[in-house]
TrEMBL record:
Signal peptide as annotated in the record: 1-25
UniProt-recorded name of the protein: Amino acid ABC transporter substrate-binding protein
Keyword match Signal: yes
UniProt-listed InterPro entries: Bact_solute-bind_prot3, Solute-binding_3/MltF_N
Residue ranges of domain Solute-binding protein family 3/N-terminal in the record: 37-266
Record key words, sorted: Signal, Transport
Superkingdom, natural source: Bacteria
Family according to the record: Belongs to the bacterial solute-binding protein 3 family.
Keyword Transport part of the UniProt annotation: yes
Length: 342
């Protein structure tokens, strides 16, 4: 009783502060179902991950993860609203309950996954930090950056990992921090900084937006591990499982050759037991997740399997032209792997 009282006191204090980091199991799904949409935190605008298109729709792999959650929960991938957040705002937005899920090129680290009332639900993209420099600087390796002025985004692992790298290699640098990546890119262009650093997936996109992209080169080093994935509030295992298994479903669908084009036909006619379970033709594996029987069919039909979503947003046919690399499936040279539906 005493313990219950003190827990209640903490929860009341947290509520008064607008902090709902003591999320209760079931609370998020209930709230999402009541309001009729998923509120999804994305970046301020990062090509390939989440960026408004000409019509103002947010497009990218991070946005599609949220659409997939909406497809699983509602059978309708359009039931999602986006909040554009910069790096500094993102965690408070999730802790306070302003967003239901944060899907914003956010690196999974131990401190973010333990001390902040938050928990990572998986990895949508394995990334790492790199450097973009003006060719005029005449350097071909990060080890030659001693004394450089470096543009960095505030509130990121980039700030921390770049500092470690320079210290570990006995190099000096002057950081200039900004709240948005556009400001960093402008400063690289104006010559205020010699180097722009960020997750490598973004360096190519940022270079493509400069007035003279061919004046700049991405250095070969990747100096950190940046596994990017969706984050939810700790304490609501039900919602955590829904986001986690949405991602697993997209990976498993790719592994089994189930695509947005063939998923409906496969759901009806498949003879493969794994596919039958995943698509709801055999058993009800959505039930314990509090999802409809056809949750995976809806994810894949409306949003796509992992490979389709990767290619559409980041792959060869896009301005980013990113190889699957580490993000290929485990049985195809990469490390993307999902436990089975059964
Ligand atoms: N993955 C790193 C970096 C995330 C980050 O915020 N990167 C910048 C530079 S690529 C960004 O997303 N800028 C876009 C924005 O301003 O919303 C982290 O989780 O701290």
């Amino acid at each position: 009783m005493k313990m219950l009282k003190s827990t209640l006191a903490v929860m009341t204090a947290a509520a008064a502060l607008g902090i709902s980091s003591f999320a209760q199991a079931g609370a998020t799904l209930d709230a999402v179902q009541k309001k009729g949409f998923v509120q999804c935190g994305v970046s301020d605008g990062l090509p390939g991950f989440s960026v408004p298109d000409a019509k103002g729709n947010i497009v990218g792999i991070d946005a599609d993860v949220c659409r997939a959650v909406a497809a699983a929960v509602f059978g309708d991938a359009t039931k999602v609203k986006f909040s554009q957040l910069n790096a500094k705002e993102r965690f408070t937005a999730l802790q306070s309950g302003e967003v239901d899920v944060l899907s914003r090129n956010t690196t999974w680290t131990s401190s973010r996954d333990s001390g902040m009332g938050l928990v990572f639900a998986g990895v949508t993209y394995y990334d790492g930090i790199g450097f973009l420099v003006n060719k005029k600087l005449g350097v071909s390796s990060a080890k030659e950056l001693d004394g450089a002025t470096i543009c960095i985004q505030a509130g990121t692992t980039t700030e921390l990992n770049v500092s470690d790298y320079f210290r570990a290699n006995g190099l000096k640098y002057t950081p200039i921090t900004f709240d948005t990546s556009d400001e960093s890119a402008k400063s690289l262009e104006s010559g205020r900084c010699d180097v722009l650093t960020s997750d490598k997936s973004q360096l190519y996109a940022q270079r493509s937006k400069l007035a003279a992209p061919t004046d700049y080169v991405v250095l070969p080093e990747t100096i950190s591990k940046e596994p990017l994935g969706p984050v939810v509030r700790k304490g609501d295992e039900e919602w955590f499982s829904i986001v986690k298994w949405t991602l697993f479903a997209m990976l498993n669908a790719e592994e089994m050759g189930i695509t947005s084009k063939n998923v409906e036909a496969e759901a009806k006619a498949t003879k493969n037991p794994d596919v039958a379970r995943m698509l709801g033709a055999d058993g009800e594996y959505g039930k314990d997740l509090k999802l409809p029987k056809d949750w995976v069919v809806q994810i894949v039909k409306q949003v796509g399997n992992y490979g389709e979503v990767f290619e559409k947003n980041l792959g060869k046919g896009t301005p980013l032209q990113i190889d699957r690399g580490l993000n290929a499936l485990w049985n195809n040279g990469g490390i993307q792997y999902a436990p089975p539906v059964r």
